[in-house]
Amino acid sequence: MAAVLSVKDLSVRFSTPEGAVSAVSGVSFDVEQGECVGIVGESGSGKSQTFMAVMGLLASNGRATGSAKFRGEELVGMKIDKLNKIRGSKMTMIFQDPMTSLTPHLKISRQLTEVLVLHKGMSERDARVKALEILDRVKIPDAKQRIDQYPHEFSGGMRQRVMIAMALICEPELLIADEPSTALDVTVQAQILELMQELSAQGNMSIIMITHDLGVVAGLCNRVMVMYAGEFCETGPVGDIFHDPQHPYARGLVSSIPRLDRVDEVRLQAIPGQPPNLQRLPKGCTFQERCEFVFDRCIAERPKLIGFAPERAKSCHLKGFDKVGAVIR
Amino acid sequence: MSGGAPILSVKNLRVHFPVTRGGLFGATRPLKAVDGVSFDMYAGETLGIVGESGSGKSTIGRAVLQLIKSTSGRVVWLGTDLAGKTRTQMKPYRRQMQIVFQDPLASLNPRMTAGDIIAEPLDTFEPGLPADARKRRVQEIMEKVGLLPQMINRYPHEFSGGQNQRIGIARAMILKPKLIVADEPVSSLDVSIRAQIINLLADLQKDSGVALMFISHDLAIVRHVSHRVLVLYLGKIMELAEAQALLSRSRHPYTQALVSAAPVPDPSIEAGKKRIVLQGDLPSPLNPPSGCVFRTRCPIAKPKCAKEIPALESRGGDASHVVACHFPS
Q1: Cβ pair B162:A267 closer than 8 A
Q2: Are A255 and A269 spatial neighbours (Cβ–Cβ below 8 Å)?
Q3: pLDDT digit string (tens) for B173-208?
Q4: 8 Å CB contact of A258 and B258
Q5: Which of B246, B254, B326 is closest to B297 using CA atoms?
Q6: Assembly ipTM
Q7: Degrees (nearest 5) of the Cα angle A103, A119, A203?
Q8: What domains does chain B contain, in order, with CATH numbers?
Q9: Helical H segments across A93-245, by residue range
Q10: Which among A157, A216, A268 has CB closest to B195?
Q11: Model-level pTM?
């Protein structure tokens, strides 16, 4: 099956007064139709910037190189008016903070119908019918009344639902969700995740879920890609990443979070140190300073992302880890 | 850990903020941020306070430290009621109780060196200390919190988020307090750094016997660090119990919803999990529901819940496990 999104050797660099920062360093991946992919990483890992580049939304000092194809069409360097025919309609994105993504002085109805009138050439009346339908689908209660309200009249969770409704209204093939539940309270986060799960189960739309929270990924995604310092360090099916991670950073992440379902844990396995400075990335592996298994090859040579099992890949010079977690060199 | 008399005893604490009804001279009505909360804390104990935004968890911490004036109730610290004490009267108690904030960078003065920030409590409470003794004390505590003593002359912007939080913890620890209120101390940190700080707090507590009030919205983290956990909703305690009992035998429907809403980083568990998804959002604390404040979102609410406020009692269970619900499980 042809990939919905095909990214090859994509890099993002920002020029700053202190010098160039390489936020994303040559990543490649495909997203197939109907799959839900989780992108996990810490702040500064490049997880958001990868997709800001895909959407053509990089800040003005940012530059993307490489290739990102949506249904075969090259997005990197595409003219704005052509890009605008794709993003917001076939490929949409939702963000962490719904309040900053909604226009405060326009009614929800206007913000929802605008895309339909613009992208699909619908009449205002048809667009409104469709908007009501979609508000029902994201479970906004009393949609008929609420459609004529302003964003400030909605609570945080409801605003995020409106955002999701806006992203869905043109029936996109790809939905990119950047930490959609992070700013919300725990019980409201559960509502949004449940909604995302339903959307994912419903059909043909592909979802990319960008998050720092491994718990969110576990319940939602089929496939996970773990990012560190602008590169993928491990990719694979969700079960493998959680139960048998093969990159030391992925292993560290999985064992450093406290879990509600475990009673025996006494001490968390913390990853020592902190992520590297993106302006002065080392020559070898970007994780070398924090890795307890580091050896001379890691310092001399940057490992590439290489497949080691069906659907699984990692960028690490170690052979791997066995079932009981012992390192194989 | 609950041997002997409590070091802190909070009795029927209320913190109400006056809010105008609109208009310059409009009448005010109370926003009940904390509404009748009672609990004890013991030496060397970690009490976790968990709740969503607006539940009053931070307000409790600040009212205990007398950083916010309470409306009524008592805060008994080692036998002395602190409520209503003036600034000068409070001073001798301040060195025994300290606070660590959520955003490390915002809570450190950018124009002071790490050494001066950490020494500030010393300068206030031991002003006659000779310079070399002061420096020695600062370097001692820096080492304890995992900062290199040679970093003493650096400024906050030269440190990472995790290191800045270590500075904040060193500042709180330098006077060897008996109580530290830690208000979301890891929420603004990256996942791989969180475990470092959680482990550090646990080590410091084991070493010094300091009591920790650990305030967070993240139930998994609270469960991991705390001996006992207090669940807040709209300014009232819903449930208070030993950490493990609260998780495995939650009796309040709100606690049960919180437990089931927290995403577990394990796809096989998430796949089979029955999630209790609460409908709606937190009601406004300006206009809390009658009777039980949770009843509007409670899956098992009955007519009685709208009429009577449930008292916080053991209700036939273990005496150390109290719950405010008419129909606990």
Answers
A1: no
A2: yes
A3: 999 999 999 999 998 888 888 999 999 999 999 999
A4: no
A5: B254
A6: 0.82
A7: 95
A8: 8-96+177-323 (3.40.50.300)
A9: 98-101, 108-120, 124-137, 143-146, 156-168, 186-202, 214-220, 238-243
A10: A268
A11: 0.88
